[in-house]
Each structure stands twice: as C-alpha cells, then as structure tokens.
Design goal:
The complex is a heterodimer.
Chain A: H1 2-28, H2 32-63, H3 66-100, H4 106-130, H5 136-193, H6 199-227, H7 236-269
Chain B: H1 2-9, H2 13-16, H3 19-67, H4 95-113
Classes of the chains: A mainly alpha, B mainly alpha.
Chain lengths: ~270, ~130
C-alpha cells in the first residue's frame, strides 16, 4: 500500500515538474509578441505618468510653492523615465518584428539592427542619467536631449517599418520568380516534345515577368523615399505614408503577375 | 266600512313610494349603466389589443416575406481554376504542372493575406516638449 502510494505520488511529482519546466521554457522565449506586449504595457504606464505630470505642472505654475515644485520634479522624472522606456521597448519590438520577417536581405537587416541597438543603448543611458537630475531645470535640459534624439528615433522606426514591408514584398516576389523559372523550364520541355503550341503560354509568361519588373520598380521608389529621410528634416510620417503607397502598388503588380501565371497554367492544361 | 275599503284601494301607491327608495333605484340604474359602459370599454380595449397583435403579426410576416429571396444557385465562378477544363491537354495531369499550380494558389492566398499597413507598429505618440513656462 505504502509502495503504491509512493509510486503514484512520485509520478504526480514528475508530471508537475515536467509541466512547470515546459512553462518556464515558454516564458523564457522572447519573440515579437512578447516584445510587443512589453511595449504596449510600458506605453500605457507612460500615458498614466504623463497625465500625472500635466496635473503636477499645472499646480506648480499656479501656486509656485515648494511642495508643488517637489511634486512636479517627482512626476516629471517619472514621466521622462517612462518615455525613455516606451521608446526603448518600441524599438525592441520593431527589431523583433524585423527578425521574424522573411525576405529582408541580411545586409540591410544587420545594418539596421546595429542602428536600432545603438538607439536602444542611447535611451538606456539617458534614462539612467535622469536620476541624477536635482532640479526641474536639469530635467528640462535632459528632456531637450531626448527631443533632439527623437527625430533620429522616428526616422529609424519608419525605415525599419519600410524594411518589414519590403521584406514581405521581396519574399512574395522571390516565390513568384521561382514559379516563373519552373514554368520556363516546363515550356521548354513542351516545345521540345512539340505536342502542344506554347505561343499563348509564352505570352502569359512575358506579361507576368513585366508585372514583376514593374513591382521591382515600385519597391526601388519606395526605398528611395525611406533612404532620403533625415533625422531633423521633413515630415517623416508623410514620407513613410508615400513609401507605403508605393509598396501597395508593388503588391498589386505582384498580384497581377501571379494572376497571369494562373492563366498560363490553365493554358498549358488545355488542349490546342 | 265599504267606503273606507274603496278609499284604500284607490290609494295612489306610487305617490306613496318614499323618495329614498326612488333615489336608490336611480343609483342602481346608473351603476348598471356604468357597468355596461365598463364592459363595453373592456371589450373594446380587448378588441384593440387583439387588432394590434394581429396587425403586428401581419406586418412582421409581410416583412419576412419581403426579405425572402428565392434560393439562388451558384453560377459558374469566373476563376479559371474553378472552371472545369473541357478539353484537357496531356499536361492537365502532369505532376510538375499540378505542383506549380498548387504553389501559385498558395502564393495567391499569401498575397491576399499580407498586411501592408502594420498600423500597430507606428511610432508611439509622445509629449516630447517638456517645459515649465506659462
């Protein structure tokens, strides 16, 4: 009886051990979803601290008392720390998204990783430096440093988003190209056998290739928009929006190319 | 004696009915009338409610009838893949061709499902300018 009890209890213990070990493994996994959750949570806390900062600022400007000043100092410090953390977690989420997007060239990906990592480090250091501020003036000065950096952060973010979209399009384009190559080989084989007229199929293939070229042109145009962005110049959101439109146009060309390949296959499957 | 009997007979009994009794009779008459009127109203109210219910049922059923659409049978889809090839070539069952066809279908689905907005990843809106000037 005791033996049986020991065996059952040890089995139950082993089961729970395995379950908890698997759970711990899952918790350790840091992917885009986890990074995005971190970012959204931090952004939420930033908004809360920002509201508190606004109230404290108004109180200080109205009453100009020492208590109001101390409270304003405390709330501003809190808000600035959360602001830095928000940008740090946002950039990390973007990095993770880039890592999980197939189709981005290694060179572009690694170059942008370096830029994003440097930016994340900047915010970490800046956030640490905030604690040394003793007065409101110090905090305002430190906030101005972040203000100067923000243009660069925005530019890097939009460029990263552009790379993600480009990656998606490149991935689809390469898949279509692969099918075009396979079809080309098949048409050659049919031509050699001579048991079917391939003129129409070849025309469809040419049309598909043309659409693919047009798509490529749109991708280049979109990239130009993103590469021409400058940290402290122009409306970056507008530039990104323009690039996004071009990515959409490239996407439409890819759809058309794929549609032509469908027609081509139908043509091959139909007797003359 | 006989005279007195005649007198008794010829007495005007109606005139002798006390006024209170007359009033009671009238009151009862009024009550009865009110009862009749109440009954009428109850019947009338019941009729109105019944009419409304019937009207609502008719309206509802007519609306449903309006919504009713005769069953439509699917017309042949314009997609060439769904259409049956009536005169298939020797390559209609070729494994390489069918493989490419499947891949194209897969790419098509991917093209349809690609998110080219990524709105959730747009930079956060932050209050960048911090100052303590009025």
């Amino acid at each position: 009886m005791t033996k049986r009890f020991l065996i059952v209890s040890s089995l139950i213990f082993l089961f729970f051990l395995t379950v908890s070990a698997t759970g711990a493994q899952n918790e350790d996994q840091f992917d885009f979803n986890r990074a995005n959750e971190d970012y959204l949570y931090t952004y939420g806390t930033y908004r809360q601290t920002h509201n508190e900062y606004v109230t404290a600022r108004e109180q200080f400007l109205t009453y100009q008392t020492l208590t109001a000043k101390t409270l304003a100092l405390e709330q501003t410090l809190n808000m600035l720390q959360k602001r830095d953390e928000t940008l740090r977690t946002y950039l990390t989420a973007l990095r993770m998204k880039m890592a999980e997007t197939t189709g981005i060239s290694n060179y572009k990906q690694n170059t942008h990783y370096l830029k994003l990592d440097a930016e994340v480090s900047w915010y970490v250091e800046h956030c640490d430096g905030l604690t040394s501020a003793g007065t409101l003036e110090d905090l305002v000065k430190l906030s101005e440093e972040a203000e100067d950096e923000h243009g660069k952060t925005e530019m890097l973010a939009y460029q990263a988003l552009g790379l993600i979209l480009e990656g998606k399009e490149e991935h689809l384009k390469s898949q279509i190209e692969e099918q075009i190559n396979l079809i080309e080989e098949k048409i050659k084989e049919i031509k050699e056998k001579g048991d079917k007229d391939t003129t129409t199929a070849e025309r469809w293939l040419l049309e598909a290739e043309n659409k693919l070229t047009r798509s490529e042109e749109k991708l280049v145009e979109a990239n130009n928009f993103l590469e021409e962005m400058k940290p402290n110049r122009g409306d970056k959101a507008k530039d990104y929006s323009e690039a996004q439109k071009l990515f959409s146009e490239a996407h439409l060309y890819l759809k058309e190319a794929n549609g032509f390949l469908k027609e081509l296959i139908r043509e091959i499957k139909t007797a003359d | 004696m006989a005279e007195s009997k005649e007198e008794v007979i010829s007495q005007d009994f109606e005139a002798q009915i006390p006024e209170e009794e007359e009033k009671r009779g009238r009151g009862q008459e009024i009550k009865e009338r009110i009862k009749n009127i109440k009954k009428k109203y109850v019947f009338l109210g019941f009729g109105v409610v019944l009419f409304l219910v019937i009207a609502l049922i008719i309206i509802n059923s007519s609306l449903k009838f309006g919504e009713f659409k005769p069953p439509t049978f699917p017309s042949p889809t314009p997609s060439p893949f769904e259409e049956e090839i009536l005169n298939p070539s020797a390559y209609a069952t070729d494994s390489a061709v069918l493989e490419i066809e499947n891949r194209i279908k897969g790419i098509n689905q991917e093209l349809e499902n690609t998110d080219l907005k990524e709105t959730g990843l747009n930079p956060p809106v932050l209050d960048i300018k911090v100052n303590f000037e009025e």
